[in-house]
Amino acid sequence: MCNINYQPMSFVKIAGKSIYRPPIMAHLQVDASYKHHIPEQTKCGLILKSGNRRVIYQEIIQLGRVKNASEAEWAGLYSAIHFALEQNELTIEAENDNLGVISTLITKNYPTRHTYANHYYRKIMELGSQTEWLGLRWIPRRVNYADALLR
């Protein structure tokens, strides 16, 4: 197996009041876990490093009943951003390994064909309007450490 070094893409601003990227950013990784046989146990794991890097949160949030794994990823990203805002983090760079969710938000490909995605798209953008900066990027699953919280 070849060893390919992962080079992360840049964060893309999707919302926020600031024109320029602030120098101090909170870093958020999020991943969701959907259990098709027990959908009410769907949850997301998040790792939030505060902007000053003095506090690291590792949380698991119950998402409630969702229809599928894609909706779980949307709900998880929304819940994680909401959590960061509750910790008074207003400059957030978030990472997730679901390319569909991240690309939809980055390219502002709205409306989508799924009602739940439209719902969470709007809710994420509403949260983003409360921030100074909200940036997103896709990461491969192997570097999404929030995934380990769900195992």
Averaged pLDDT, please? 92
Helical segment count: 4
Number of domains: 1
Report, as a whole number of angstroms, the end-to-end distance: 25 Å
Largest sheet at a glance? 6 strands, mixed
CATH class: Alpha Beta
Number of strands: 6
Uncertain runs with pLDDT below 50, 5 residues or more?
none
Q: Which bin fits the share of residues in helices? A: 25-40%
Strand content: 25-35%
Q: Write the CATH fold name.
A: Nucleotidyltransferase, domain 5
Pattern of helices and strands: EEEEHEHHEH
Rg is 15 Å
Task: Give an overview in words.
With 151 residues, the chain is α/β, with parallel strands linked by helices. It has one domain: Nucleotidyltransferase, domain 5 (2-Layer Sandwich). The chain contains four helices and six strands; from the N terminus they run ββββαβααβα. The chain has a six-stranded mixed β-sheet. A hairpin with a 6-residue loop joins strand 3 and strand 4 (56-62). Helix 1 packs parallel to helix 3 (115-128). It is globular. The model has no long low-confidence stretch (mean pLDDT 92).
List the keywords.
six-stranded mixed beta sheet, 4 helices, alpha/beta, Nucleotidyltransferase, domain 5, 151 residues, 6 strands
Condensed summary:
By secondary structure, this protein is of the alpha/beta class.
Question: Layout of helices and strands, plus pairs?
Answer:
Elements: E1 12-15, E2 26-33, E3 43-49, E4 56-62, H1 69-86, E5 91-96, H2 99-106, H3 115-128, E6 133-138, H4 146-149
Parallel strand pairs: 2-5, 5-6
Antiparallel strand pairs: 1-6, 2-3, 3-4
